[in-house]
Amino acid sequence: MAKRLIDLLLAAMGLVVLAPLLLAAMVWVRLDSPGPLFFRQERVGRGGRAFRIHKLRTMSVDAAKRGPAVTELDDPRVTRAGRWLRHYRIDELPQLIDVIAGDMSLVGPRPEVPRFVALYPPELRERVLAVRPGITDPAALEFADEVKLLAGSADPERTYVEVILPRKLRRQAEYAQRANLASDLVVIIRTLRMLAQR
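Above: the chain's sequence. Below: its structure in token form.
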């Protein structure tokens, strides 16, 4: 209950404080390339329940038809505005709406698409999906430059599934087992510090 109240308070404050930045980013997305402002995609949340995540659109509208499910370094599907928004994680700001709606938390395992969740080992799946997914978590910090790890791979999606995803899952399971308000605060501070250094 305390975690949920803190999520609601900080997410609402974040939307108010960051509204000018979010509005400017939305205008840039609209002017930069044709298509919707928001990218909505089905993700798997707490207890295996599906929800549609909010992000600012950073790719061309036909991106899903023109490449893998993961994003590569210098991916040609990413728009000019999208490169900047992704670098500073501004495309993730609309997920504050998902926090307020109760689909996500500020801190929790990053939610995956159903086809990747289907690959989770049963014991890790149960632990990771026992908590509400989040905007940031220790695994997201560890793999903040994931696209660089995928650079040069002949098959980025296979590399993600076989190399990166198992490591992420272990970190997420550790978080889910040990998470508390103090550790969440540490993750939030580390995330803000990382963004400030970009």
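The chain has ten helices and four strands.
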